[in-house]
Amino acid sequence: MTQTPTSATPKPQLLDDPLALRTILIGTLIVLLAMGIRATIGLFIQPMGLERGWGREVFSMAFAIQNLAWGFGAIGAGMMADRLGAGRTIALCAALYALGLLGTRYSSTEFELYMTAGLLIGLGQAGTTFAVILPVIARTVPVASRSTAMGIASAGGSLGQFLVVPTGQFLIDSLDWTGAYWVLSLTLAMTLPLAWFLRGTPGPNTGPQQSMLQAISQALKHPTFHLIFWGYFVCGFHTAFITLHLPAFVVDQGLNASTGAIAIGLIGLFNVFGSFTAGKLGGTHSKKNLLAGLYALRTVGLIWILVMPTSPWVVYVFAGWMGIFWLGTVPLTQGLIGHIYGLRFGATLMGMTFLGHQLGSFSGVWIGGRVQAVTGSYDLVWWLGIALSLIAAALYLPVRETPLNPSVLAKTT
Known about the structure:
The protein contains 17 helices and no strands. By secondary structure, it is mainly alpha-helical.
C-alpha cells in the first residue's frame, strides 16, 4: 500500500545542517570578539589619559572618528564581500583591527590616536561585525531559521560586551594598559584563520537579477530604504550615547564609577536575551512592526532614567530594560533588507544602511559631550533620545515589507 504524500513539506531543521551550524558559531565568535574588544575603549581612558596627558575630549573624538570610519567602511566591506567573498573581507579587516589596537598602544600624539583607535579600528570593525557577518549567515542557513540565526549572532555581540569588558579590566590591572593592548590585539588576530571557514563566493541572488550598481540604485529610489536608514540612525544615537556617556552621567549624579561599569555590563547581558528573542520573533512576525514597537518601548527606559531619583538600582533597572532592546534592531533590520531587496548584494545594502546607524552614533557621542560641556547636564540629550525613539517608531510604520522587483519599483517611483 502506498502512502499518500502529505501536502506540507517538513521545514529544514537548523541542527541538521552542519554547514549552517559551523557558519553561525564562527560568525558569532568573530562578532563576539570584535564587539567585545570595542567595548573596552572606555577602560583605557583613565590610565592612558594620565600617562599621555589627554582629557576625555581626546578619546571622545577618537571614538567619534571610529564610528564614522566603521560606517563608511561598512559600505566598502559589504561591496568587497559581495564581489570577492566574505572570507577575504573578514581577514583583511581583522588584520586592520589588530594593527589598530597595537597602534593605539604606541600612539604618543592625538593625531596618532585618531589614526589608530579611530580610523584603523573603525575600518577593522566594518568587516568583522554585523554588515558582513550577518549576510553570510543569512545565505547559509535555511529560510525558516534565518531570522533566529541572525539573532544568535547579534546576541554574540552583546555577550562579548558582557565577557570581554571585565576581562579587559583584569588585563589592565595585571599587565598595565600597554600589556592589555598587546593581549587584545593578539586575541583579535585569532579571527584571521577563522575567516577561512567563511570563504567562498556570494550565494545566488534571491531577488531580481541585477548588477550591484542596479541594486544600489533600486534601493536608493525606494522610499522604504530611506525609512530604514533613518530609523537605524536612532539606534546608533542611543547606543553610542549611552555606551560612552552613561558612566560619566552616573558619576555626575554622585554615584560610584563602578555603578556605571556594572550598568554597561548589564546592558550586554540582557541583550543576549533581547537579540535572540528579536531574531526569533522576526521569523514569524512583521519585522517592521517589531522595530516600531522596540523603539517605542525604549522611551520607557529613557523616561525612567530621566525622571527617577538616581540610585544604583534605578540605573540597573534602566540598564536591564535598555539591554532587552539594545541590538534587537540588528537581526530585524538585516532581515528587512534581505527580504525586501534580496541577499545577492545584502552585505552592500546592509553596509549602506549601517552608515545611518554610525551617523547616529557620531551624533550621540558628539552631542552628548557638547551638551554636557555647555549646560553641565545630560538632560537635554535624554529628552532628545526620547523624541528620536518616537520618531523612529513612526518611521517604520509605513515601511513596505513586500519583496521588491523592478516592475514594483517602476510603479513606486
